Amino acid sequence: MTIKFFQPPVAPGTPCLSPFCAKLDMLLQLSELDFERHVQGDPREGPKQKVPFIEDAGERLGDSNFIAEYLREQHGFDSQRHLNATDRAMGNMVISTVEEKLYWVLVYGRWRKPENAAIMKSIFFGHMPDDAMRKEISDGAEQMINNTLYGQGIGRHTEEEVVAIGCQIIDDLSTLLGDSACFFSNTPTLIDASVIGSLVNFAYGPAQSPVAEHIRQKPNLVQYMDRLAQQYFPNLEKQAA
C-alpha cells in the first residue's frame, strides 16, 4: 500500500519551507517504500494540526520523528540500524540541536527581518486577491509568529545574538562531519535527513541570512549539502550569495 505524504505547497526551485517536511521527504526516499506527495495547505487536517504528516493504511500520523519510529516498527525500516549505541546517541543530540535550536534561528531570520518577512508574506498570502484581506491576514500571521518567537525565548535576543547562536551550531556541525560522507556513517540516515532539511532551507530558501553565508564558508558542509540535495532534491535552485 502506498504511503501518502502531506506537506505545504512547494514553490518551483525551492525546498519545502518546513525543514521537517524536507527531512521526511528525504527519509521516505531512503526507505524505498512506495509513497506519494500530496499538497496540504491546511495543517489542521493533520493529527497534530501541523505538517508534515502521513497516511498509511487509513491511519494518519504526525511529527517527523514519530513517523520515523512508525516506519521502523511497521515497515522494518531503520536508517540507523548499522550505527552503534554511541553514534545513535550522538545522532539524537544532533537532531535535537538542529530541530529544537537551529530551527528557531531559521524562523527568526525569516520573520524578524522586515525584508525577509515581506518575502514570506508574499509566498504564503500573495495569492489572495483582496488587498485589504491579504494585508490583515498576513500581518496577523507575522504578529503571531513573532509572539511565538518571543514566547520560545529566541525572540528576546538581538539579531546579532541569534546569528551567533546559529553560526556556532554550523561550526559544530562542520566539526562533527569532518571529512565523512555523512554524519557517523558512510550512507545517509535520519540524522542526515534532519540536517539537510535545515541546511537547504538556509542555503536554498527564499530568505537569506548571515547564517546562510556562514554555511557557505564551510567547504565540507557545502560539499555534503550540495551532494545530498542534488541526489534527493534535484530541482532545487541555490540562491545567489
From TrEMBL:
Name of this protein: GST N-terminal domain-containing protein
Cleaved signal peptide residues: none
Cellular component GO terms, alphabetical: cytoplasm
PANTHER family membership: FAILED AXON CONNECTIONS-RELATED, METAXIN RELATED
Cited Pfam families: GST_C_6, GST_N_4
Species: Maritalea myrionectae
All residue ranges annotated as the GST N-terminal domain in the record: 1-79
Top-level taxonomic group: Bacteria
CDD domains the record matches: GST_C_Metaxin
Stored InterPro entries: FAX/IsoI-like (IPR026928), Glutathione-S-Trfase_C_sf (IPR036282), Glutathione_S-Trfase (IPR040079), Glutathione_S-Trfase_N (IPR004045), Metaxin_GST (IPR033468), Mito_Protein_Transport_Metaxin (IPR050931), Thioredoxin-like_fold (IPR012336), Thioredoxin-like_sf (IPR036249)
